[in-house]
């Protein structure tokens, strides 16, 4: 039986880049389909992928965690320390073919452990309403809706959890 393991990964590795592209493609395509009825145009997709380096997930103020299903990198989550005991969860992704196999739960356990070890007492995040799988994952792991703590064109709902 294949199992999940989660470990830190350099934000600028080839593994991190592949998972970022998969994550960005999925969330961008969902938005484009919702708003225009078609997938993300290739040039817009490339601009979007290139617009985020992930450097904010470098230690000591950030961490990128990668979930491995056996030997396959198939999930990721970023953690940014915001100060005052607060950390932000970002870029949560599990490959669609492996959703429901425990990857999200393995990621969430690793994120919480890493946040606590970094001194965080609260995790927060923002997301879009149409990312229903992610929202269900957060709810299953004790996140509750909170007032907005950030602004952004794709921030539609905010969650928090005391650690």
UniProtKB/TrEMBL annotation:
Residues 18-163 form the N-acetyltransferase domain. The keyword Lyase does not apply. The keyword Acyltransferase applies. SUPFAM superfamilies: Acyl-CoA N-acyltransferases (Nat) (SSF55729). Keywords: Acyltransferase, Transferase. Transmembrane segments: none annotated. InterPro entries: Acyl_CoA_acyltransferase (IPR016181), Bact_Acetyltransf (IPR050832), GNAT_dom (IPR000182). PANTHER family: AMINOALKYLPHOSPHONATE N-ACETYLTRANSFERASE-RELATED, AMINOALKYLPHOSPHONATE N-ACETYLTRANSFERASE-RELATED-RELATED. This is GNAT family N-acetyltransferase. The lineage of its organism: Bacteria, Bacillati, Actinomycetota, Actinomycetes, Kitasatosporales.
